[in-house]
Amino acid sequence: MGRYVLRRLLQLVPVFVGTTFLIYLLVWALPGDPFAGKCGERACPDAYVARMREEFHLDENVVGQYLRYVGNLLQGDFGQTFSGTSVGQLIAAAYPVTLRLAIVALLIEAVIGVVAGVLTGLRSGGFLDNVVLVSTLFLISIPVFVTGYVLQTVLGLRLGIIAPTVSADASFGELIVPGFVLASLSMAYVTRLTRTSIAENRRSDYVRTAVAKGLEPRRVVGVHLLRNSLIPVVTFLGVDLGSLMSGAIVTEGIFNIRGIGGLIFRSIALREGATVTGVVVLLVIIYLLMNLLVDVVYAVLDPRIRYV
Amino acid sequence: MRARRAAAWTAGLLSIALVTTACGGGGGEPGGGAATPSGATITVNGTEPENPLVPGNTNETGGGKVIDALFSSLVEYDPVTAQPANMVAESIDTTDSRVYTIRLKDGWTFHDGSPVTAQSFVRSWNYTAYSPNGQQNASFFSKIQGYDQVHTEDPDGTAGPQTAPQPAAQEMSGLRVVDDRTFEVTLSAPFVVFPTILGYRAFAPLPELFFTDRAAFEAVPIGNGPFRFVSRQPGVNVVVERYEQWPGAPKPSVAGVEFRFYESAEAAYADVVANNLDFIEVIPPSGLAGNLYQTDLADRSVSRTFLGVQRLGFPLYDARYQNPQLRQAISMAIDREQINQRIFGGTRPPADGLVAPDVPGRIPNQCGELCTYQPDRARQMFQASGFQGPIELTSNADSGNAEWIQATCVSISNALGVQCTFVPVPTFGEHRSAINARQLSRLYRTSWVADYPSIENFLNPLYRTGGSTNDGEYSSPAVDELLARADAAPSVEEGNALYQEAERMIIQDMPAIPVYFQSFQAGWSERLQNVTVTPFRELDLESVTVSDN
Questions:
Q1: What is the pLDDT of residue B11?
Q2: How far is A299 from chain B (nearest CA, A)?
Q3: Between chains, do B48 and A262 touch, taking CB under 8 Å as contact?
Q4: How far apart (Å, rounded) are the C-alpha atoms in residues A33 and B159?
């Protein structure tokens, strides 16, 4: 197990190099000049463009720029934006916010999703099952921005229960509604995954054996049935944390959460390679570590799974 | 088996720990935001400044509104009429519209206590104009004698291998300090509007600190304006507070301002409705639809035009658009009033000239027939011009322009009986890249918002040969000569008459079609009173008052 984890961690290195280089290439290949739209309807003065190009080494070829960037990164320097703000500072401000939002969303989708999934999976075909099926269908078919605006308008503006936007502090309490919006789609998937998995395993031999042994139903469901059924759900949740961190652009925009989504969106628009790369590097690391975590949790859920 | 399970749990916890430390950055809250000081402060919608807060290097609105609060120029513009009036300047005198003697008022200081002197202005102007400093607003000094000695152009453009030569001088010969409170500006040619442009932020003075320690200045900008810098949290806000020793009038009544950056106009709008934000100058489409904002913000919103005009430009370097008859025909094929009513709910008046409403020097209806919808005449002229192929309009798709351009296209199609298509490009950057590189073969959207309130600002930069935003490469010797005569007029009134004549002359050539005049809708919270929104689309921070609850 220890060797397995170590090997997975070592795999971070080539993935890190590959992704950062690809991102650098992609930002570099975006059409248009980064300074074309910066001066409004006027073309930016030559002198300004020349100074910025020199300052940010935009005249060098992309490999040279990349090597310089990685060199700085290894010393802990994420570089600067065109406005002279340190990228490290921007990321340090945005990451905790997005992470909190993602955790809130993950908790909501895991708790509600698994509970609803178990309840419907045990009584498939019943009234509750149909209600949940219809409501998850409803959630899946509504885009996030609709859910977001509706909740913001109804709860924030019409009823005044919440503030319509999240303050710069972004405490957990403020993030519940945005977290629900962000989680809504995945919550539906988690419910359906759990339900299917439970319904399938309910008829399997080992459950029948457990019941025949005379175990109480709570233990049959909670330990025997749930542990096997949760494997696909855990995979989904793990990958989902990664996408929650990177895919919150719409939710963050609606509720004005100063997180990674908006930062990455603005940086791509302004073609700030250093910011985009910095954020993406961290996203990649999170994806990899989450995958590792998921794989490790498999062993806990199903002891037959071994790592060599 | 038990040992393995324990190992699994440990590994699981380890990877959780790695995830959180990898991205948490310690979880320490940055900055601390705006701890509300005593007295009532207000919050104003803003966007992240694109550059460090240096007046000579800022010409976008996000940084611009902060700089306008931090700095006072020689001249300020009336918040209602946009007429220029002296601010830091006591007098600006000239006899020939070429040599200006500027005398400063006494008692002005920077926020660090150092005095604002003639030297502060001259040094800051020389710094901004000097091309190796790479300031965005350098071209505002091009009228001053000796500018060509301090500002050199890149001979083959910024993309080419050559670099701009080192300028011959560091200072413009046209600037001369007479004494601490007086300096003299000599222009390379007479320019009657010069006192008006002095209100633009590029002409703001910079303190000694800027020249000795630029990094310290950028961290804590020091101006001479009604507000002084308190803190800045990247991506979140800039906070300023009232500067008690500011000698200008009227003195602001609010204790401070937080320029808060929003991810979207919708979020800012929702906050204004809920009284979490005090002012927004861009009500988003969701609030404009069906005039929802008038119910949401009853008695706390305003809709008015500002100093901007929306145009469709012709790439005159493309041989197909050489015929002025063709350009006039397309202009007359646009039903401006219908676009105004159908698309903008009547808020964007049809353009009747090249100059926006409220601009000093403007007279109405300069365009006359040529901006009036006349489908029959337009079709005749169009057919006579012999233009081949479909008419195509292009614009960036990342702003709310697609609707009116499509409507314009439909109007042109119907009137001329020829196919018109809208060809969007994804971003403003790409749109401007193509325009700057002179690579267009279609009509393109190009708007203009005044830098300073004068009819001159709507003509010289846009239509004079070699003008800074003459994107279509329009060139007419007669217009150039008339504009030069207007620049050299002995008084602003006489100058304006000549500018108006030039405007009429340009319209006959129709190098760009004026379509509508820009307008904006602003809203504010229940806390604000005495709200004046300037023609520059900004809240007048000096006159606004706030109830303390």
A1: 53
A2: 7
A3: no
A4: 10
Q: What residue in B sits closest to A297 (Cα-Cα)?
A: B12
pLDDT band per the 50, 70, 90 thresholds, residue B26: very low
Q: How far apart are CA B443 and CA B420, in angstroms?
A: 11
DSSP string, B73-135: -SEEE-TTT--EEESSEEEEEESSSSEEEEEEPSS-B-TTS-B--HHHHHHHHHHHH-GGG--
Subunit contact B135:A47, Cβ cutoff 8 A: yes
Superfamily, domain A88-301: MetI-like (1.10.3720.10)
Query: Do A168 and B427 count as a contact with CB atoms less than 8 A apart?
Result: no
Chain A residues with CB-CB distance to B449 below 8 A: 40-41
ipTM above 0.90, yes or no: no
Residues of chain B in contact with residue A99, where contact means CB-CB under 8 angstroms, are 20, 23-24
B14 at A interface, C-beta within 8 A? yes
Nearest to B25 among A53, A92, A169 (CB): A92
Domain ranges of chain A: 1-82, 88-301
Parallel, antiparallel, or unpaired: how do β-strands B443-449 and B391-396 relate? parallel
Write out the CATH class of domain B7-21+55-222: alpha beta
Whether B153 sits inside 8 A of A53 (CB atoms) is no
Q: Mind listing the pLDDT tens digit for each residue in B201-221?
A: 999 999 999 999 999 999 999
Q: Cβ(A240)–Cβ(A186) under 8 Å?
A: yes
On chain B, the residues whose CB falls within 8 A of the CB of A245 are 23
Instruction: Summarize pLDDT for B508-517 with one digit per residue, the tens.
Output: 999 999 999 9
Give how far A94 is from chain B: nearest CA, Å: 9
> How far is B394 from B391, CA to CA, in rounded Å?
10
Mutate to test the interface with B, among A7, A12, A41, A145 (most CBs of B within 10 A): A41
Give B15's pLDDT tier (boundaries 50, 70, 90): low
Please tell me the pTM assigned to this model: 0.85
Neighbouring C-beta atoms of residue B397, cutoff 10 Å:
18
Q: Check CB contact of B364 with chain A, cutoff 8 Å.
A: no
C-alpha distances in angstroms, A294 versus A136, A290, B97, B360, B531? 25, 6, 76, 68, 56
Interface A–B counts its CB contacts (< 8 A) at 231
DSSP 8-class letter at B369: G
Q: Which CATH number fits domain B308-519: 3.30.43.10, 3.50.50.60, 3.30.70.1230, 3.10.105.10?
A: 3.10.105.10
Which pairing describes strands B237-242 and B182-186: parallel, antiparallel, or unpaired? unpaired
User: In this predicted structure, what is the pLDDT of residue A66?
Assistant: 87
Q: What is the pLDDT of residue B10?
A: 54
